[in-house]
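Incident log, support desk, overnight shift.

02:14 A customer reports that sequence design results differ from what the structure should imply. Their input is reproduced verbatim below. On-call engineer (initials T.W.) acknowledged and began investigating.
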């Protein structure tokens, strides 16, 4: 009986401690990062509007070779969905909820594993300070449940996800600028092949 009572007290103590940390943890979370890309909004937008294109620069897909994606709906339109399953990425989905052409894409994130949570994400495009450049801002906001409050009490969101958002935007910048450079080279070659008018 003493052992059972001791285990019960220990269990109640752990629950009480978890409740305290959950109470002290952040009730909401918000994070964003911005990168300047040497390309127009029109050139960048396909890479943030289409969920399949987003996978090309997603930091999470790259970090989990077991990750598998499935797609629903017409990509690049409101209502299209990317669902994933992976050992590191867990189980979840991303649904496009709003599109403002060449300006904004909003999505709803629904995580099922390793724990359930939801968030709203957005990628916005604005003219950069230098001519021909674009500032791309990627961020999200969410209300934290019991588990998230405990996690973010010990591991602040900025430390946990900030570097990943920076990595993703860096890869987006490299991808877009590389594709734009290739397109410019191809255009130049085509122009040079066309004989000048006599």
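02:41 Re-run completed on a clean worker. Output:
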């Amino acid at each position: 009986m003493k052992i059972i009572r001791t285990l019960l007290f220990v269990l109640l103590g752990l629950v009480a401690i978890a409740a305290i940390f959950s109470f002290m943890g952040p009730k909401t979370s918000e994070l964003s990062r911005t990168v300047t890309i040497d390309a127009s909004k029109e050139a960048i937008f396909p890479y943030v509007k289409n969920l399949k294109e987003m996978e090309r620069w997603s930091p999470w897909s790259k970090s989990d070779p077991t990750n598998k994606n499935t797609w629903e709906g017409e990509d690049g339109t409101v209502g299209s969905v990317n669902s994933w399953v992976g050992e590191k990425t867990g189980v979840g989905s991303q649904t496009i909820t709003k599109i403002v052409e060449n300006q904004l894409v909003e999505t709803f994130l629904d995580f099922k594993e390793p724990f359930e949570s939801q968030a709203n994400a957005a990628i916005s495009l604005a003219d950069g300070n230098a001519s021909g450049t674009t500032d791309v801002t990627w961020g999200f906001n969410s209300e934290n449940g019991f588990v998230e409050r405990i996690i973010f009490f010990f591991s602040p969101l900025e430390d946990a996800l900030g570097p990943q958002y920076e990595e993703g935007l860096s890869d987006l910048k490299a991808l877009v600028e590389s594709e734009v450079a290739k397109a410019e080279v191809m255009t130049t070659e085509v122009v040079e092949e066309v004989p000048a008018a006599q």
